[in-house]
Predict the structure of Haloacid dehalogenase.
Amino acid sequence: MVKGIFWDNDGVLVDTEHLYFQATAEVLAEAGIELSRETFIEISLRRGESVFCLAEDRGCGVQQREQMRLRRNARYGELLRGKKHTLDGVEETLQALHGRCLMAVVTSSRRDHFEIIHENSGLLGYFDFILTREDYTHSKPHPEPYLSALKRSGLPAERCLVVEDSERGLQAAVSAGLRCLVTPGELTRGGDFTAAWQVLEDVRQVPLLVR
């Protein structure tokens, strides 16, 4: 019986990954570096690495890359603010599961961006706790985020599920000994999800599997 569900945020609960791509591409373009969607997907969503490695390859130093990262973060915040980003079917799914098991968000998103995203989402009341990028040393695909969630929940891995949308998230979950449901989005569809427990077409399928 499932006692806990750990949810990724971007691409699972909210439609924000295209905005992160946009902000990053704009900043890299200022340095004359073109970032394609395919390159972003490969580096960020599959490997879980920083696309600013492209700037390093062009000879940009540590300080310059850090300034680029700060500008990207500010731009991303601008793109997020004042809009509702909740994906279709998410709120009714959380309503159906609320009270039936522990639920948490485990995200690689910075806390300030996470708070902007959920200013108007109405989703946070469904979760027992939230872990953002500041709550662990290593980001996905490292298993630390989900190992931290297991420790916080007090539940055994075999009683928990993860809901992810990317290859890096799937790898983090599996490496932590967790079963993972994958709901691919626009940028992650077509990835290698053979390690997933199941790949879902619609997030509304989650309560049926839990039941």
Q: What stands out?
A: Residues 17-80 form one domain. The mean pLDDT is 94. The CA atoms of residues 19 and 58 lie 24 Å apart. The chain is about 40% helix and 10% strand.
